[in-house]
Amino acid sequence: MCRVLLAVILLSTLPVAFTQSIDVASCNDCKREPLEQKTPVRILIRATCALPGGTVLARQLFEVDAGLSAEEKRAMAERACQPILDAAVAKCEDLANRVDAMKSERRLAAPYSHRERQLATEMKKALAAAPPYCK
Fold it and tell me: What percent of the chain has pLDDT over 70?
């Protein structure tokens, strides 16, 4: 019984002991210096570059001023992701154009010919090698 009581007392005093050992720094220097002379605080933001369907292409870290509003931070994140999204869209459009060209060439090939089978195989390989966001 005494062990249980001792364990309960120890467990209840441990969080208090840890919270009291944390030092809170006072900001005497920041009160003395004018705010105009200080450099603006910079923070890192992680931008998740995703397609409208929800497929995440990349995550990027970039540095911004901490004083910016949420809308400004969101706009900067969109600008940082724009090249990645443009490259992904270009890659998907290129794949679609190549597959369409092979389809039209396959329609012109003689039925059951070697060229028709070759084009069908190339189309399957191109679609299998495509990134998941292009499918």
Answer: 70
Q: Please tell me whether residue 44 adopts helix, strand or coil conformation.
A: strand
Class of residue 119 by CB neighbours under 10 A (exposed 0-12, middle 13-18, buried 19+) = buried
- Work out the number of other CB atoms within 10 angstroms of the CB of residue 47: 19
- The DSSP output letter for 27 is -
- For 9-46, b/e burial (b = at least 16 CB within 10 A) is eeeeeeeeeeeeeeeeeeeeeeeeeeeeeeeeeeeebe
The domain segmentation of the chain, as residue ranges, is 36-134
In sign, the C-alpha dihedral spanning 9, 15, 16, 17 is positive
Q: Dig out the tokens for 99 from the structure.
A: 């597959």
pLDDT tens per residue across span 17-59? 444 444 445 555 555 555 556 667 888 899 999 888 888 899 9
pTM of the model: 0.62
Instruction: Report whether 100 contacts 79 (CB < 8 A).
Output: no
Measure Cα distances from 113 to 15, 57, 109, 116, 120 in Å: 78, 40, 7, 5, 11
